[in-house]
């Protein structure tokens, strides 16, 4: 049923500070697609891309030139800068992957085409209103089980596909420190919809989404250089996206595909980046759990701006950082709309989604 | 961490209308436990149990004798009668299994000890308030991922463990009719908590629960002989249990273990039993999704009686059947309390759970 889309429907976004040797391993799967490389850190450094790949590369100077003063919403010295790539893409689908992620193998020893599985996930509906115990009912060999209401079997459009990681699991610094040797070796052969009303920790390492449906909510926040927090870029985007998907009647799936995450980042450095987030998330998550978007917020942009206002009002009390972040959220939407003026098609898609 | 409990902590409840030859296959796993066999249908028929099993057997005459007029709440000519076994048990844990379920094999070809996995599930906490993308964080080789709030990592007590089925999936009659050849061959190596606020279709074929925590809510309703509905006994129990677990802060897990479901029941017969349920569930599920239990309902019994009142008021409008069912729910609790007078320990457990 689901097929890999043609080259002109998907961009691969890669944030990096180094030469992209890791692409060699992905060549059979990525070569036909266009890459958007967002160079993090020193713009004078040259990033080498293996021959044969079709790509555009943006460094900090490019971002400043394209966005002008609005470039302030794009993080510097943090992989959160990747979201600039989502903004400049003109494709329907985005797949983003970290440069320390390699091709994983399934239990039969076969290379996993992560991109193909993400697209399958995005092209099949989600089922956020009721749990199906045999997991994704749209997968071959599965269906809705006895007791699943028939009125809910059409499902809703899938906006986000969250993939997982074999080898190095995506642990926070305290868990990394406590379990330095833990490796994820369990291949769980499933995809499932995260139910409505439930938040999840979205990791940006191996992630795909439908830009038309949810793109403007995929903002990775203010992290890294000059900010009091790091490693919460994808979490922030995940909380915002989940609340907006729930509001607009869109789905988020998690599970397959796996990538092979090769190297744990330094837990001491991570702890320094994370400690504010670890503390703040205890208040941020209840905030997102209780947030209610108004009926007037019928597009992702409107939802996002309404959310920014509430971030300012309610999270601003925790730390002035959230006031700055709320401003950056609004700037992000302004920049998004400038680079992506609404078309008839995108308006139609949003309307359909909000029904 | 989790170990299989001693013989005196668990009963296996089996509803049946035939000789229990299927137990031969389960002998290595079940022989050390006590069986409660609830004989469905004609009480004059003799059910043969293979030698060596320790069991008690109740037929309709026994049920009538033990419960007197309250026996009206126990279904006749339907496997829903199994819940009588939950009531007469005196153990902490119940495992219930259908007599057409055999030992399944894991992908390595090894026999699956379903009971052992259920107990593992029940002894490990659940995490209903936030989704963990690596599934059960308490399993060996897994943990909470980055971004999972630390305040939620203690989890909550697990009340129910819902296992799955290889070979014949648990489909409703329409799906059986449309996909007569579909078999479930996918072994998904995971256990996960059903998030708070999300309902699921609980199947009674391969199910375990903590009687002390949730027993009085495991009522399988009025089905079969003289009733306008069948095959919704476990669904009904699942909806009620989920709402009460959410209210009391208890968890429900689904996934492993698998059993091998040998034979599809007749889809034409099933359709006749199900058609009212298929129709009614479109209103029942929104009812359970919006139900709110009061703060005063601090025990499973109080929750259940409050729920019965709402069933009467709100679902009674759909069909007089629900008025009768609401009465039966109250009768069930009366019968439960008569057979299970509260002890200091059970009061303590309920209080701890409701905190």
TrEMBL record, chains A, B:
One of the protein's GO biological processes: UDP-L-arabinose metabolic process
Record field: transmembrane: none
GO CC term, one of those recorded: Golgi apparatus
Residues with site note (Required for activity): 146, 153
EC number: 5.4.99.30
UniProt keyword S-adenosyl-L-methionine present: no
Top EC category: isomerase
UniProt keyword terms in alphabetical order: Cell wall biogenesis/degradation, Glycoprotein, Golgi apparatus, Isomerase
Secreted listed as a keyword: no
Role of this protein: Probable UDP-L-arabinose mutase involved in the biosynthesis of cell wall non-cellulosic polysaccharides.
Protein name (record): UDP-arabinopyranose mutase
Organism classification: Eukaryota, Viridiplantae, Streptophyta, Embryophyta, Tracheophyta
